[in-house]
């Protein structure tokens, strides 16, 4: 029985789209984008949040790190639950929690309250990326899913490209709370479309009830695999460099270089277009070059871009373009590496794709959160700590890929 089939439709399924249709793929991409939207849209509001709540940069940055920690932990639950009960009901539950906590965040009256609600928002929103990846794997199989994840990455990048621009204007005109009201409306629309237009993608006979012992066995199998940890680390290190930029860039661009919130969104759009270029390149070339060669190309670009930014910061080149242009190169590499590394990690484990996606997401988000905290702790008012972090993450991406190539069997 092919792995790309969904459950056999019953009478209640007649109104839903074909699992392989463009509409279904677009809806899944929109749900995967909830994570980047909830991360990126409120970045221009960081300085305003500092002023309104009388908080330090480190306290504001913690709302982002806490979000990532919650995002990581929840994936460990969503993956196994979806392997047992199916992707759709678990994803709907996560979206409902995201909706409720987004409404709460819009009414927060303290930094502590906002941080707690950001944690709850993450616990709900993480269902989108982890189960969206698994649904694409269910529908399209291992090879085609790599191509689809690249194109979904391109489409996904449009939302975070626009999000900081929109967030910057909303912050200036309506205040930071309007951003969370927008996220609430986005989640409500996602619930409606998922509930009425997307079928369950997991085979009924592929589901299993994972006891704690079986779950630990599955995680151990993934961690002991010859290649899975290195695909995961390659993906995680390159993402941690991206998160270093998310953590530090609002303060570097708005406070240090003196640009307004709206201008920050425009700079951020350039970064996202670099990511989109990478995903488009990967989507077009993956069948010709293969996953590993593409990852190697992307890792070289990430290491080169990150290393250039770190060098310019050490040389005290005091220009916003000394940050933006190297990071565009880094993001082209990121757009190539991330979808291919995810597909490479998921390919050997179709029967536990949800669990595999969950553990990958947990490692990725935990590492990124830790790096983001360090960027905030060592921020000295200049681009230095952020740039050094991005340079280090690009180098570690390349090192992880080198180990991956070394460990791959000659055949």
TrEMBL record:
User: Where is this chain primarily localised?
Assistant: membrane
Task: Give UniProt keywords alphabetically.
Answer: Cell inner membrane, Cell membrane, Membrane, Transmembrane, Transmembrane helix, Transport
According to the record, the segments passing through the membrane are 21-39, 59-78, 90-108, 114-136, 148-167, 173-194, 230-252, 264-282, 294-315, 327-347, 359-378, 384-404
Location in the cell reads: Cell inner membrane; Cell membrane
* Positions of the Major facilitator superfamily (MFS) profile domain: 24-411
What Gene3D superfamilies does the annotation carry?
Answer: Multidrug resistance protein D
Biological processes, Gene Ontology terms: xenobiotic detoxification by transmembrane export across the plasma membrane
An example Pfam family from this entry, by short name, is MFS_1
The record's GO molecular-function terms, alphabetically, read:
sodium:proton antiporter activity; xenobiotic transmembrane transporter activity
Q: Which GO terms describe its cellular component?
A: plasma membrane
Topology of the protein relative to the lipid bilayer: Multi-pass membrane protein
Name the CDD domains on file: MFS_MdfA_MDR_like
* Assigned protein family: Belongs to the major facilitator superfamily. Bcr/CmlA family.
Q: Give the protein's recorded name.
A: Bcr/CflA family efflux transporter
């Amino acid at each position: 029985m092919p792995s790309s089939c969904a459950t056999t439709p019953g009478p209640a399924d007649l109104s839903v789209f074909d699992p392989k249709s463009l509409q279904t793929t677009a809806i899944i991409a929109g749900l995967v984008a909830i994570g980047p939207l909830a991360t990126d849209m409120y970045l221009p509001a960081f300085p305003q949040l500092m002023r309104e709540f009388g908080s330090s940069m480190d306290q504001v940055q913690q709302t982002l790190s806490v979000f990532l920690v919650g995002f990581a932990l929840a994936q460990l639950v969503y993956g196994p639950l979806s392997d047992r009960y199916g992707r759709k009901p678990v994803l709907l539950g996560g979206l409902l929690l995201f909706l409720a906590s987004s409404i709460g965040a819009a009414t927060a009256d303290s930094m502590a309250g906002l941080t707690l609600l950001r944690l709850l928002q993450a616990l709900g929103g993480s269902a989108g990326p982890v189960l969206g990846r698994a649904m694409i794997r269910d529908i399209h199989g291992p090879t085609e899913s790599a191509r689809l994840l690249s194109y979904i990455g391109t489409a996904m990048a449009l939302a975070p490209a626009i999000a900081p621009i929109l967030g910057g204007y909303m912050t200036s005109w309506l205040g930071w709370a309007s951003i969370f009201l927008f996220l609430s409306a986005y989640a409500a629309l996602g619930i409606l479309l998922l509930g009425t237009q997307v079928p369950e993608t997991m085979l009924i006979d592929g589901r299993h009830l994972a006891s704690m012992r079986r779950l630990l066995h599955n995680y151990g199998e993934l961690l002991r695999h010859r290649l899975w940890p290195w695909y995961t680390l390659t993906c995680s290190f390159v993402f941690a460099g991206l998160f270093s930029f998310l953590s530090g860039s609002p303060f570097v661009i708005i406070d240090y270089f003196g640009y307004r919130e709206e201008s920050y969104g425009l700079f951020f759009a350039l970064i996202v277009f670099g990511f989109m270029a990478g995903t488009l390149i990967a989507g077009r070339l993956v069948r010709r070059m293969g996953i590993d060669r593409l990852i190697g190309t992307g890792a070289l670009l990430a290491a080169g871009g990150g290393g250039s930014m770190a060098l310019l910061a050490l040389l005290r080149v005091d220009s916003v373009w000394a940050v933006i242009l190297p990071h565009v190169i880094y993001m082209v590499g990121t757009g190539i590496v991330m979808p291919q590394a995810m597909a490479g990690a998921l390919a050997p484990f179709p029967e536990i794709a949800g669990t595999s996606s969950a553990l990958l997401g947990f490692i990725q988000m935990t590492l990124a959160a830790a790096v983001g905290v360090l960027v905030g702790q060592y921020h000295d008012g200049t681009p230095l700590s952020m740039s050094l972090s991005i340079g280090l993450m690009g180098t570690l991406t390349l090192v992880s890929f080198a180990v991956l190539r070394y460990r791959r069997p000659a055949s």
